[in-house]
Each structure stands twice: as structure tokens, then as C-alpha cells.
Amino acid sequence: MTNQPRVVAICGSLNEKSTTRVALQNALVGVESEGGTGELLDLREFDLPLFDPSNRDAGDAAELKRRVREADAVILGTPVYHGSYSSPLKTALDYCGFDEFEGKTVGLLAVAGGRFPITAMDHLRSVCRALDAWVLPYEAAIPRSHSAVVNGAFTDAELESRVVALGRQIVLYANIEPCPESFESGENIGAVD
């Protein structure tokens, strides 16, 4: 890894006026303030059909995997749909695997229209654990997103600060020594199917 950790932030929202995208852009401000370089991977810009294990490089999957694999750390950002993370992010993660995530530091960010965006991050934490990634204990949750972000800007300075801190934390821990393989990864047959 270089002295300047490279971070990719994957936006799991396809909404043109996505609060998730705004939040990830703010997290990348934190990445750069801590000396890292950041890139937003906007899933609207990738052709990713539903995952079919018989065609692991469908559409733009090879490009997505390359960019994730070349990063030192990843921030996953998602809107909360029915208490979990979005289907575009699920599809992107299905195309990725150990080559992209094993031993990598991952930060989590979830955005909810309601008051409880935590379960989506719990689900993402489980997926990352199954891929032997190291997930930051620090995470950013944005409840009541319709009032938290207006016209592309945070209205709540505390939430904005928390999101920027996620970007700083991902740089600080981008080179953490990976944990030993998890039980979940050893049982993750789908990753090598």
C-alpha cells in the first residue's frame, strides 16, 4: 500500500438525488483531509445485470471488480430498503469476492428515510465478515434523510461531521493488519462456487 491510501466509496443508490451519494461525497472529503485519495463508484454508471454465477464478468463487472481490488479501503454506502441494504449494492457485492475484499478495511454508511438505519449496516457487516474484510467499528448512520440533507447539503452539522469522520477513520485504518480468517468465510461456499 502507498503512503496515500486509495479509498473507493460505492454508492448503492440509483436515485438521481441520492442522499447516500451526497453522504459518500462528504466521507471522501474526510478521506482527503486525512491524506488519502478517494473515488466515488456510482453504481448508476455501471451496467451490472442481476448476478449469474455462470457469467461473473457480465456487463461492467470486470471494471467494478478491478477498481475495488486496486483500492486500499472501501466505503459501502446504502439507502435502507425494508430494513436492509439496496439491491444494486447487493448485485455489486455478488460480483465481487475474496479477491476484492479479503484483508481490506471497509467502512459502512446507511441512509434511512425513517429513524433506524442500523440493520442495513449489520447486514453489510455480516457480508464483509464472510469475505474476510475488516469492518471499521465506527460507522455513519443518517436517519430522517429527507430533512438531514436538503438541496445536496447537510442541514445537521453533527451528522455531517460524523460522515466526514468516517472518511478520516477509513484512512487511519486502511493498513490495519488483517484478522485471521473468520468461520463465516470458511463456510462461504458461494464465494468460490
Automatic annotation (TrEMBL):
One of its GO terms (cellular component) is cytosol. GO terms for molecular function: FMN binding; oxidoreductase activity. InterPro entries: Flavoprotein-like_sf, FMN_Rdtase-like_dom, NAD(P)H-dep_reductase. Its cofactor is [4Fe-4S] cluster. Residues 5-145 form the NADPH-dependent FMN reductase-like domain. It comes from the Archaea. Gene3D superfamilies: 3.40.50.360. Pfam families: FMN_red. Belongs to the SsuE family. Isf subfamily. This is NAD(P)H-dependent FMN reductase. It comes from Haladaptatus paucihalophilus DX253.
